[in-house]
Design brief:
By secondary structure, the chain is mostly helical. The protein has one domain. 73% of the residues lie in helices and 0% in strands. The chain contains eight helices and no strands. The longest helix has 36 residues. It is elongated, with a radius of gyration of 24 Å.
Length: 203
């Protein structure tokens, strides 16, 4: 009669092989990669958010700068930072969409601010503003890189969730597909804003 310990060992090895073959380990790995990718996206968005108060304060020094553009940046930042971006957000499609929309609005407001600032020679000659602008451009690039990495990881995770036979593992362990940044959102972010370059009316 087989020794009980040997039977337990065989059972453990069989279970491990079964879980590995049905994609369980891949789910664990990709789930951690999605969390790590999302954390990096949030870090870059936070970096951008931290730059905005200094950018707004510097632009306010230009007396004739259009107030509406500044107001939209401030309001968009408040809307974006008002959403609690927790790790669980990647498992809530509705909350993720709301977060995505808020960040997209902030991207558009900042883009318009940078375009409008080209009308003002004092701002173009302001070393502090130009330094902030360079920092913002670098941060936007890092956001793009982080978002693209996140999108690719989520794609891999979702393919595993939907494919046979790993979709059976997904059902057993409640692994649902995860939301990602949409194509429409990517297009909106990459599109340049439309800005009128009429000179501010003289007082």
């Amino acid at each position: 009669m087989p020794h009980p310990r040997s039977m337990l060992t065989v059972a453990a090895l069989s279970s491990a092989a079964l879980l590995s073959g049905c994609g369980y380990n891949d789910f664990q790995r990709l789930d951690e990669e999605v969390k790590g990718g999302w954390s990096e996206v949030l870090n870059q968005y936070q970096r951008r958010s931290d730059l905005i108060p200094n950018i707004v304060a510097t632009v306010k020094g230009e007396a004739s700068f259009e107030q509406e553009t500044l107001t939209k940046v401030v309001e968009a930042r408040a809307s974006a930072t008002g959403i609690r971006a927790t790790p669980e957000l990647v498992n809530d499609p509705a909350a993720f969409q709301k977060f995505q929309a808020a960040q997209g609005q902030l991207t558009g407001a900042l883009s318009r601010l940078m375009v409008v600032s080209e009308q003002y020679p004092n701002l173009k000659a302001n070393a502090a503003f130009q330094d902030l602008r360079v920092q913002l451009e670098g941060t936007e690039n890092r956001i793009t890189v982080a978002r693209n990495r996140y999108i690719k990881t989520v794609q891999q995770y979702n393919v595993l969730t939907r494919s046979f036979p790993t979709n059976l593992t997904a059902m057993v362990f409640s692994y649902a597909t995860k939301p990602s940044f949409t194509v429409a959102n990517e297009a909106a972010i990459s599109a340049p804003p439309t800005v009128s370059f009429d000179k501010p009316a003289s007082k």
